[in-house]
Amino acid sequence: MTAAPSQPQGTSRRELPKRVDVLVVGAGISGIGAAHRILEADPGVDLAIVEAREATGGTWDLFRYPGVRSDSDMFTLSFPFRPWQGRKSIADGGDIRDYVRATATEGGLDELTHTGCRVVELDWSTDAQEWVVQVDTATGRREVRARWVHLGSGYYDYEQAHDPGFVGVEDFRGTVVHPQFWPEDLDHTGKRVVVIGSGATAVTVVPAMAQTAAHVTMLQRTPSYVFTQPGVDPFVQLLRKRLSPQRVQSLTRIKNLGLQTFLYELSRKQPRAANAIVLGQARAFLPKEVVEEHFTPPYDVWDQRLCAVPDGDLYATIRRGAADVVTGHIDRFVPEGVRLTDGRVLEADIVVTATGLRLQLLGGATLSVDGEPVAQERSYAYRGLMLAGVPNLTMTVGYVNASWTLRADLVSRYVARLLVHLRDHGLGVAVPVAPDGMTAGPILDLTSGYVQRVVSAFPKVGDRAPWTMPQNYLKDKIAFGRADVTEDMFFAPLGAKGVTLPSGAQAPAQLPLPGSSSNVDGSVGDVVEVPAAGAAEATETPASVAAGVESPR
Fold this sequence. Notes:
Elements: E1 19-25, H1 29-41, E2 47-51, H2 59-62, H3 74-77, H4 93-106, E3 113-115, E4 118-125, E5 130-137, E6 140-151, E7 156-161, E8 175-177, E9 192-196, H5 200-209, E10 215-220, E11 226-229, H6 234-239, H7 245-269, H8 271-285, H9 288-294, E12 307-310, H10 313-319, E13 323-327, E14 330-334, E15 337-340, E16 345-347, E17 350-353, E18 357-359, E19 366-369, E20 372-373, E21 381-382, E22 386-387, E23 393-395, H11 404-424, E24 427-432, E25 441-442, H12 449-452, E26 460-461, H13 473-482, E27 489-493, H14 542-547
Parallel strand pairs: 1-2, 1-6, 2-3, 4-19, 6-23, 8-17, 9-10, 9-17, 10-13, 11-12
Antiparallel strand pairs: 4-5, 5-6, 7-18, 14-15, 15-16, 19-20, 21-22, 24-27, 25-26
Helix pairs in contact: 1-11, 5-10, 7-8, 11-13
């Protein structure tokens, strides 16, 4: 069930350059897409990619839990410049990893990639007009100087998952494992399994493990909405008989984006109608009382990320009795399993803690400008891709309500256009300047616990363009296409000395939690238990220790 390891791309043996025009951090979907667009716009750019892990592919190489797959359709998750030609619309993780690597190989990006190179510090020098980047490698600390840095490292911690602080884990006689650190030798055949959680990972793991486990229980504190999509899209199969891969990609994107946008916008304007659509799907698979107890959350659709399952496989697994759902609060672990606050004990041989991710920005690296640390929580995000007051640095932040790649590609194309503007106008510095008077909002506007635990430590968005970040691809596509790269930007000529960077408005460090959350009810795992500043702490989780596995390095 676990994806087999494949050969990584890039090399940590190739000598890291001492100086480059552009340094791209991360060799997953975000980094590979950004590097492609930057070189597409200016093939003469001296560019290098560094990847902290020993393998490329990002998330899709890291995750190896049973059934790992996309939670978005591949015709919006794949690169627009390289159409997805796999059969499955909801694709397996290994296939996505191979697709990302093949894209890098075709574009020659694997030859520019250095694996095993973790960026730990970035310090901007205004006088030198370059970033001094400290990189940890297997042979020690290295320094790379770059005129521009693009961070395609995502927004969560690859080394540490969220630890809800369950009591009594050490008393449990079985095995505890977190999906982010899945042991290759874990055999669940014939075992009793309890999966704690009801998010995208849990709804994937449960039907996959249930194929060979004795029984699987999905234990959730609060129900989640689950939306079923076709694993193999019949619309795509029909189009492929007549049209080119690029045309199939384009038309399927239009269709899928239309459906996604409709449901999201409906959830914002008429939440009861959107809820009824999703719950109607569930009732087509399961008895009404099961849906009401376990799949009807106390919040609206898209207040938290909507879980997608192919062909209703989770529902089908429950219906045939291979899995069940229990909704309740955990009291503690006991030798035979997990005891709930109502006294029930769920017996288990294996407990999977699908309790969420730990978010972090910039891949965990520290950031400073002319030696002064940047307070990210006080920074406004310019177009959701730059930080106010921070020169020559961009980052990829995708959508929370649609495929990550949709916004990632818009960001990459914008960055490429901005770099060409600097080249054509002889400029060496570009820094966004936040205007006064803006009302701040969260850069990730979800009530999910994994977001609310750290959202105050992240940069903020404003209430006016270009400081907003709408969760709407169609609006973004128009806005990015028309965007003036000089708006609210300060530029300095290439090689200029004695430049003073302007100061702009600062965002408030704390914001009210967005919406209403099911994660602040006083039970283990509440968002209030983990302060925002703790999101980047590097400590081993009890789940990884109990499972006998180490976080990947």
